[in-house]
Amino acid sequence: MILALLNISLLVRAQANPWRELKDAFVLERDGKPAQAIIALQLLVSSKSLDAVIVGKSWDVLGLAYEDQGSFSRAQHAFEQAIHVLKALPDHATDYAMALDDLGGLYLAMDQIDASRNLKLQALRLYAEADEHGGIAISCSDLAALALVKNKIHDAKKYLARARDEQLAATDLDDDGRAAISSMQGWLARIDGKIPDAVFAYQHSLDLWRNQHGEEHSFTGWGYMLLGNAKAEAGESASGLIDMERGLRIIGRTLGHENPRYLWGEIAYARVLDQTGAHPPAARIKAEAERQLKDLYRGQCPGCTISVAAFR
């Protein structure tokens, strides 16, 4: 009875001020609280009295929240619903572009590279038509990642150069967006063998994520993982392992030990641990993480593999 009354109360609030509820849910999702965001968003998308724009954007944020939880099939359904709603609203092309972009990000995590690239290119075209510099910057950064997956280094550098140019022109790019672009610079620097530049870029990403979210957030945890991995490549294995261990602890606390991002992090950590000579524990960590990832993918997206773009 109490739960029913609570749901009614939340529904009344959502109907009374849906934009506020959507904003609050988005903040919860960005603050690493997907479960709380999902409750509010499910009420918004189920309401038949709301404006279509709110419903479409709510589906999009719901997809992000499900993806944070590692629920790929639910995230895909939510993004597809967002695209269906927003595509029919010509005055909201950038919202439609964002939904395409987000579904493309999910496909990247699921290692469906061609599908991800097609969606990112559609989003880029819409952002460019609307002169949305922040959206262009992020799409180009993601397209650079997809090019690197395919070992198309020239294309990756072209997209990243455009991302950096658009970043300078953008007024709507927050520290998360800047951190993502800096992270891509780090990945490209690693491929070019410029490891000190990679360490610098990943340190910058970590600083931006920490500034945006504080220490207890999955993005910050991931920043430590990336920085530690680069330090290990620079020959600083001990310092790198300390950063990676800190990152894993943060991701474990914020997302859980069964989340795909935590498992990807364990595989990367095991690789560095193996380089220090700790072969048996490294092998055990890697084998268990890969087993859990395969089980997760088998249940949610048959045919998916561990994405080579997941750790960057």
Task: Provide a brief overview of the structure.
The protein has 15 helices and no strands. It has 312 residues and is mainly alpha-helical.
Could you explain how this protein is built, in words?
This protein has 15 helices and no strands. It folds into 3 domains: 13-88, Serine Threonine Protein Phosphatase 5, Tetratricopeptide repeat (Alpha Horseshoe), CATH 1.25.40; 91-173, Serine Threonine Protein Phosphatase 5, Tetratricopeptide repeat (Alpha Horseshoe), CATH 1.25.40; 190-312, Tetratricopeptide repeat domain (Serine Threonine Protein Phosphatase 5, Tetratricopeptide repeat). The protein is 80% helix and 0% strand. Helix 8 packs parallel to helix 10, helix 10 packs antiparallel against helix 11 and helix 12 (218-233) runs parallel beside helix 14 (260-275). By secondary structure, it is mainly α.
